[in-house]
User: What shape does this take?
Amino acid sequence: MTNEEELVVLADEEGNAIGTAPKATVHTTDTPLHFAFSSYILNPRGELLVTRRALSKKTWPGVWTNSMCGHPAPDETNADAIRRRGVSELGLDFGSFLDIQVVLDDYRYRAEDSSGIVEWEICPVHLVRLAVGEFVEPLPDEVEEFAWEEPQKVFDAVDATPFVFSPWMVDQLSHPELRQAILEAFDPEA
Assistant: This one.
């Protein structure tokens, strides 16, 4: 499915779905509130996948961010959307996902990038665990580069240089419960 075909589910302030719009037309200087998801993907050792957004991205090109974000299609659960985007964006197999857990169910944010494009999303944050032996092969149109890092190193980098990371990642990681969930999954002995 291309951006031109992909639909985004629009929302009202109370979090109710109120319609859809083509993804290609939604992100502007006057972006309507819509549903999205954000995910932090961990390998079996608990290392965190961080990605650098492709330079061709409309918003925040070249910025380091969490593992993967996206938009659920109409009538699609966030878990199914995460699997779909994991396949299409990161080159994972549909069966790669051991566990998908919601950590910040009510997360929402509004941010404006330097070009004036606005992100305004109701965006539950998920922790995703991958099966042993899974490899990431990101699409170049989505991901410029990626790294698997110890979670505390990522937290330290975000705290020291927040301007290098997406505003939603910085904001999400300001929630102690997300950091704790990620740290609890880290097992360097695995």
User: Anything to note?
Assistant: The chain has one domain: 7-185. The mean pLDDT is 94.
